[in-house]
């Protein structure tokens, strides 16, 4: 990842993003939508730029960016960037994958609080982000889950993020037990973050309009109830539990453990023998994990 502008602020951020800054201050002027002379939008990169800042207002309200550094993923035409600055962000570090759009923004943005970097947000080490920072972005649909879960897994406790994603993904992140969107992603996300659906964004709010409706989702990292040493095993259990949605929890668990162990764990929790994974809440999954780990040692 390469920075298009440097300075002392950029040097500190370079470590976060594992890249080396380039010298020279970036002259920038925010834009509200792609204008004449801008590069073409590439559907292969999932480029659907916001038209107006009002669509992102609920997300920026949630982030409370005044006086804070914001890491923005996919600045696109600069609509969200401008709103972040208007709301008082002390600095916006914008990560853009498409070099042509990055250089277009370099020519057009003027605010000295902006630092623009060219690179893949999937490669960022979110564990190095300051807890007081905020993360925001209009995420390409094809990598949205990967980026969101990267933040959920690695960002420090207390950090807030707001992402514009496909509404289906927002539903999966915020669902409750028994809902159709509830699944492994839901449980694993909510084990490490409080998730909130902030606003629905219709296709007409984008250039070009996508084929689906989108939504802003807000995330706040919480102290996980599962320790880091146990996290990989907990993830494996949850994913196994949801691996075949039409099967019972017992049948799914028996693909990775002896049936008597799985049956005993379900019985110890006083759950119905034919219960399915989507009926369990986060707390019950944690209890199930604890019981399974205990029974394995017997």
Mind explaining what this structure looks like?
The protein has 298 residues and is α/β, with parallel strands linked by helices. It has two domains: 2-221, Vaccinia Virus protein VP39 (Rossmann fold, 3-Layer(aba) Sandwich), CATH 3.40.50.150; 228-297, rRNA adenine dimethylase, C-terminal domain (Helicase, Ruva Protein, domain 3). The chain has helices at residues 8-17, 57-63, 79-86, 99-108, 144-154, 167-174, 184-190, 228-241, 249-253, 259-268, 282-297; strands at residues 2-3, 49-50, 69-73, 91-96, 114-118, 134-138, 160-166, 193-201, 206-207, 214-221. It has an eight-stranded mixed sheet with strand order 1-5-4-3-6-7-10-8, sandwiched between helices. The chain has a two-stranded antiparallel sheet with strand order 2-9. Helix 7 (184-190) runs antiparallel to helix 8 and helix 10 (259-268) packs across helix 11. It is elongated, with a radius of gyration of 21 Å.
Structure characteristics:
10 strands, Rossmann fold, single chain, alpha/beta, 298 residues, two-stranded antiparallel sheet, Helicase, Ruva Protein, domain 3
List the helices and strands and how they pair.
Blueprint lengths: L1 E2 L4 H10 L31 E2 L6 H7 L5 E5 L5 H8 L4 E6 L2 H10 L5 E5 L15 E5 L5 H11 L5 E7 H8 L9 H7 L2 E9 L4 E2 L6 E8 L6 H14 L7 H5 L5 H10 L13 H16 L1
Parallel strand pairs: 3-4, 3-6, 4-5, 6-7
Antiparallel strand pairs: 1-5, 2-9, 7-10, 8-10
Report the CATH superfamily of the largest domain. Answer: Vaccinia Virus protein VP39
Q: What is the CATH architecture annotation of the largest domain?
A: 3-Layer(aba) Sandwich
Q: Please write the CATH class name of the largest domain.
A: Alpha Beta
Q: Strand order, biggest sheet? A: 1-5-4-3-6-7-10-8
By CATH, the topology of the largest domain is Rossmann fold
- Major sheet: 8 strands, mixed
């Amino acid at each position: 990842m390469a920075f298009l502008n440097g300075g002392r602020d950029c040097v500190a951020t370079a470590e976060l993003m594992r890249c080396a800054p380039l010298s020279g201050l970036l002259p920038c002027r925010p834009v509200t939508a792609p204008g004449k002379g801008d590069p073409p939008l590439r559907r292969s990169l999932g480029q659907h730029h916001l038209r107006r800042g009002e669509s992102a207002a609920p997300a920026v309200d949630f982030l409370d960016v005044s006086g804070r550094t914001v890491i923005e993923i996919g600045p696109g035409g600069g609509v969200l960037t401008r709103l972040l600055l208007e709301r008082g962000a002390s600095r916006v570090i914008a990560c853009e994958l498409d070099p042509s759009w990055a250089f277009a923004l370099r020519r057009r943005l003027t605010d000295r609080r902006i630092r623009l970097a060219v690179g893949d947000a999937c490669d960022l080490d979110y564990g190095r982000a300051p807890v007081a920072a905020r993360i925001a972005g209009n995420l390409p649909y094809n990598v949205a889950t990967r980026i969101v879960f990267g933040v959920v897994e690695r960002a420090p406790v207390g950090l807030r993020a707001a992402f514009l994603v496909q509404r289906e993904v927002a539903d999966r992140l915020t669902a409750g037990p028994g809902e159709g969107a509830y699944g492994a992603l839901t449980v694993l996300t909510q084990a490490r973050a409080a998730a909130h659906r902030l606003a629905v964004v219709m296709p007409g709010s984008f250039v070009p309009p996508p084929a689906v409706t989108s939504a802003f989702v807000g995330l706040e990292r919480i102290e996980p109830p599962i320790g880091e040493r146990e996290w990989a095993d907990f993830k494996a259990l949850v994913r196994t539990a949801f691996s075949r949605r039409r099967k019972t929890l017992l049948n799914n668990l028996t693909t990775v453990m002896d049936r008597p162990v799985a049956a005993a764990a379900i019985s110890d929790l006083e759950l119905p023998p034919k219960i399915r994974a989507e009926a369990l809440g986060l707390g019950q999954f944690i209890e199930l994990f604890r019981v399974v780990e205990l029974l394995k040692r017997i």
